[in-house]
Amino acid sequence: MIRDEIKAALIGAMKGGDKEGTATIRLIQSAIKNRDIELRTASQQPDDAQLVTEVLQKMIKQRRESVELYRKGNREELAAREEAEILVIERFLPAQLSEAEAEAAIQSIIADTGASSMKDMGKVMTEVKVRLGTQIEPARASALVRAALA
Q1: CA-to-CA distance for 66 and 74, rounded, in angstroms?
Q2: What is the 3-state secondary structure (H, E, C) of the chain?
């Protein structure tokens, strides 16, 4: 389980004296705990691996946006810290599809759904989420689908 890997990594980072890694892993645990609390009243509970992966992907997306903003504001030291956090978070994500694999899978989904224009993007993205789920980041999938349908 991903949660167990995160817990073991926290212990390892603490024993190794990795302060930045320890802080980032604690942020991960906090975000997962907050998501668990949000879902307490939900009628359907998502798969645990899927829930944790979604939280991690969201954290990475937030940090990438922050890196972009910090670079625009000439705050390279803050951008570097965010990039270091991204590297720690990515360690816990399931293996992502390569560029060629992702493009092939998206082309297959487009063919299966009969999509032909940008109007069909929602239908394609729904199917991408179902079939590929945690194997591709939603932002990356969106960009690939948009390029294929354009």
Answers
A1: 12
A2: CHHHHHHHHHHHHHHHCCHHHHHHHHHHHHHHHHHHHHHHHCCCCCCHHHHHHHHHHHHHHHHHHHHHHHHHCCCHHHHHHHHHHHHHHHCCCCCCCCHHHHHHHHHHHHHHHCCCCHHHHHHHHHHHHHHHHHHCCHHHHHHHHHHHHC
- pLDDT, tens digit, for every residue of 22-45? 999 999 999 999 999 998 887 887
**Alpha-carbon distances of 10 from 14, 22, 26, 60, rounded to whole Å:** 6, 6, 7, 18
pTM of the predicted model, to two decimals?
0.77
